Model the fold of this input.
Amino acid sequence: MEAYNESLTHDRKFYAQDINGSIAWARANKNVGILTEEEFKEIARGFGIVEDEWDSDEFQIKPGVDEDIHTANERRLGEVIGQAIAGKLHTGRSRNDQIATDLRLWVRDQLHDIQEHLEHLLQAIISRAEVEIEFIMPGYTHLQRAQPVRWSHWLLSYGFFFAADFKRLKNVMDDLNICPLGSGALSGNVFGVDREAIGRELGFKGLCWNSMNAVSDRDFLLETMSWGSRFMGHVSRIAMDLCIYSSQESGFVKLSDAYSTGSSLMPQKKNPDALELLRGKSGQMHGLLSGFTTTLNSLPSCYNKDMQEGTSSIIATISLLSDSTQILTGVLTTLTVQPAAMRRALEPSMLATELADYLVKKGVPFRETHHISGKVVALAEAQGKGMDELGVAELKAVDKRFGDDVAACFDQEAAVEKRTAKGGTARESVREQIEVLRQLLRTGEMPAWKVSS
Done:
């Protein structure tokens, strides 16, 4: 039962946060007369020694005694400064508000790191999009070649997924940054400690306003996991695209050896292991969210031991998100683009919409031009050649409104450059998108939509 009950295996990661919270708590107790100034200084000094032991991996855990990080730190503090003083530390505090505080502090710290990793990912996308803006490739819908787009435009499509994740992460970090310490086991503190002072010392922006809610709230863990689930969904999608683009059938990109491996049997193969693992890890992230959501479902009010399961879940979540963000950044930074392969994949039939738009500009309704363009595609297929190989006379035979200038429709670069509306794949539109993402990284916000008066 001791092994089943203990949580130190996992919550030892919170040692620094637990010590910081304990020092803030000791200061609050000193300020209301529970501790003297000298006792507080001795507690702070002792915790400095304890933290150094954790930092240097010299902390000696006592199995059967150290159930969790709270009991381990307090037990060792007593050994360092004596129980006469250390025994006063926990006055008015419960492990219920202590673990709630540790969790919020630790997750906050970890999300700051993940935010930095996400910034690096966005910067990698921006850099490639800017440098490789001239590369044109097939754009796909339903995994079918659809219309030509810039490689940069494809990169930025995921850049804006991750930009939305970046903004949502800020909201998650803001929501969790409230202080539960001073709530006790459930009913509050009898000694009148200044909870606002505690919160300020620990860097919180506000308080948990109801003590029963404070010790039982794990929504901030669910919100972190939910954010991670959505983020990893985006990661899995770009990983899937890159698996396809790096295949021999496409050959649009070549992965670095650092993020791929050879086959144990077939020496000619180069497997996209990093991408496949990123894709697979998204399922693990969804499972962590689903599992802890189920754990919290139908719990009675206040603290219950079931909540301890959130510790291993959030640690696994943070590790998965941190590693995945850095791995994806590495993949995108080191891959080699093969623009010639992209060009070879640009089929004339991808310009069928150009023919329809050509006739629209002559006043023909789009639904009619769509049908006419389809007839041209069918004609080219029947003759076993590309649409661009059809003569003007053949096109006029399909519809007499085709003019001698229709051949200009079969220019992939021109087709791309016509998409000049905001968000499109034309060169200047793509550059504008790059600047929007740059502004997000500079200011934390994307440009406001300008509505004409």
About this structure: Residues 95-131 form the longest helix (37 residues). The CA atoms of residues 137 and 344 lie 9 Å apart.
